Amino acid sequence: MAEDTETDTWYVLRTFSNHEKKVRRYLESEIERIGLEDQVEEILIPTETVFEMKGGEKKTKEKTFFPGYILLNCTLTSDLRDLAEDLPSVIGFLTTGTGDEPTQLREEEIKRILGKMDRAEEMGEQPEMPFKVGDPVKVVDGPFDSFNGIVEDVYPDQMKVKVMVSIFGRKTPVELDYLQVEHEE
């Protein structure tokens, strides 16, 4: 949008959860309509691409790091603040506990958030953590197809789970890929 200026800083705009993209669209269109583009450098919703298994199929989706929050790199004037806070689905800017002035993100906070997004992008599609210890699951693929069991351990870096299944009446640990199991209905 605008060129970097010395006064550009990052602020957090609070929204209803799952309304972040809608609020960003509203905000971008209103900023353009009113002519405040020179005050806004970037509107950011920190996300990562994850996949999950639903009905035995791999589905890709965007996962928001901070549901209900949008980051704005801007020169926050009263006009811009009023515009943003009056949009549908907006709660307001994140403020300090003592006042109603919007809190600026510290440089190390924004670097950490941007770094997390960069790492997520470099790593590519990541599985959403679909299972936890104790979850009842059904094996849907492989030699143990149709067996039921309980998740004993989760290995997110390998995208595997250890499931205790009953084979010939004995509890046996079986290591399976996330794609080979689904939550028991």
Automatic annotation (TrEMBL):
SMART domains: KOW, NGN. Residues 130-157 form the KOW domain. GO terms for biological process: DNA-templated transcription elongation; DNA-templated transcription termination; regulation of DNA-templated transcription elongation; transcription antitermination. Pfam families: NusG. Residues 7-117 form the NusG-like N-terminal domain. Gene3D superfamilies: 2.30.30.30, NusG, N-terminal domain. GO terms for cellular component: cytosol. PROSITE patterns: NUSG. Keywords: Transcription, Transcription antitermination, Transcription regulation, Transcription termination. The keyword Transmembrane does not apply. Belongs to the NusG family. Participates in transcription elongation, termination and antitermination. This is Transcription termination/antitermination protein NusG. It comes from Salinibacter ruber.
